[in-house]
Amino acid sequence: MREAELGDARNASQDSMSGGTRFLLFPQAPHVSGYERPETVWLSTPPGQIRAGPEDSRMYVRDPILEKQPYEFPYLPPFVGDVVAPAEPDYEGHFDQIPVGSRQFLAAHAFASVSRVLDIWESYVGKPVAWHFADTYERLEIIPLVDWENAQSGYGFLELGREFEDSARGHPYALNFDVIAHEVGHAIQFSLYGMPWNGLAAGDFAAFHEASSDLISLMSFLHFDSGMDRLLRHSQANLLVLNELNRIAELTGDRQLRLASNARKMSEVSAEVHDRSRPFTGAVFDTLVEVYHAGLVQQDLADARLLGVDLKDIDASAIDRISAYTARAYRARPFLFKSELVRARDEVCLALARAWVLLDSNDLTFANAAETILDTADRVSPALAKSFEGNFVWREIL
User: Fold this and answer.
1) Confidence tier at 317 by pLDDT (50, 70, 90)
2) Is the pLDDT assigned to residue 9 strictly greater than 70?
3) CB 280, CB 366: distance < 8 Å
4) CA dist 4 to 1, 11, 72, Å?
């Protein structure tokens, strides 16, 4: 039964891609070494149902010609000024022919990134995700370029600035899948378990939101074939080496970078929401790695001593030992390593997505969320639940 559940999620993901619409997406920002070329992805929407813009029944892009100030209440969508010429589909209805350096590509990339994240997580949730602002706005408005060093997901809109730190021209966040996935992650959570009556700052709500959006971004990256291949090659199949998976870029007024692979406990963090989110993110990341390692050993792909390395007390020498246990075997059988990472990814994502649907936003604490995840994880795999429990306890969440 549990194997069938995993199969259902995989089949839903595969079915949603068949007969869909082609776009080009960068798994990581194109200025990151090794990610200069985009990957072809298939969105679930059939060709012809995404119109010039792009736009469809759930979202639309508006790219202002003149400089636009970021949205702030009471100034909200829709944008009604003059816009750049829209991204056009080809004669078959696909958008993968748009020149990468064009303004239209920014629009197409931002649109496809949002759609891709929805496709991924709807396959795990098992149903469409309705926008939390649907009573006011039928569709999400996407502004792909604002002269602003930030990005924000708001009530009915997503607008993307650019990163100026490394370039005078700046790197548009419309080309940064990680940033977009994090922002869409907030919208998904609001849709699945709502907003608390006593405000977003109450209890653990905001910190849990940040942690879960980080995890949505991290796990969404693992759905790019080229991204996963490069990740495994670069790390020699050791996910604890500093890499593009465990480095999480996210914005709160200025550029921040957090590590999913961290050793923080709840007693060691401050009340600041991003800092307070780290133990939960770390617990889930460690669970992903443990399930991945267990699969490698079970399939005779790695030295059994790999399971003797305690991720809760990791240091440089332990990371080196893990690399020694995985590197040679990975070079011999890279596709089997990828299969085990996909399996671990799907198990963890299923547990998270099914837990989110059951949460009560008015009584949301890290402990309550962790208990709910243990229940959903146990239905996926008792071993997954055991791994989650050990990590939540060590992080002082339970």
Assistant:
1) confident
2) no
3) yes
4) 5, 10, 46
| Residues contacting residue 68 through CB under 8 Å, at least 6 positions apart | 79, 81, 143, 146
Specify the residue for token string 């990740």: 231
Model pLDDT, residue 15: 42
pLDDT at residue 16, as a whole number = 41
Would you tell me the crossing angle of helices 103-125 and 205-221 to the nearest 10 degrees?
A: 110
CA-nearest of 191, 206, 186 to 365 is 206
The CA distance from 352 to 392, in Å, is: 14
Candidates 23, 338, 348; CA nearest to 215 is: 348
User: What would the DSSP string read from start to end of 343-394?
Assistant: HHHHHHHHHHHHHHHH--GGG--HHHHHHHHHHHHHHH-HHHHHHHHHHHHH
Neighbours of 357 (CB within 10 A): 13
Give Cα separations from 221 to 4, 39, 116, 331, 392 (angstroms). 24, 12, 10, 22, 24
Distance, in Å, from the CA atom of 227 to the CA atom of 229, rounded to the nearest integer, reads 5
The number of beta carbons lying within 10 Å of the beta carbon of residue 285 is 26
The answer to whether 168 and 180 are in contact (CB under 8 A) is no
DSSP-assigned beta bridge partners for residue 153? 158
CB 158 within 8 A of CB 140: yes
3-state secondary structure of 96: coil
Show the DSSP H helices in the chain as ranges: 2-17, 103-125, 177-193, 205-221, 225-235, 273-298, 316-332, 334-358, 366-380, 382-394
User: pLDDT tens across 285-303, in order?
Assistant: 999 999 999 999 999 998 8
Q: What is the 3-state secondary structure (H, E, C) of 27-59?
A: CCCCCCCCCCCCEEEEECCCCCCCECECECCCE
Q: What's the pTM value of the predicted model, to 2 decimals?
A: 0.91
Which H or E element spans position 172?
Answer: strand 171-172
Alpha-carbon gap, residue 60 to 108, rounded angstroms: 10
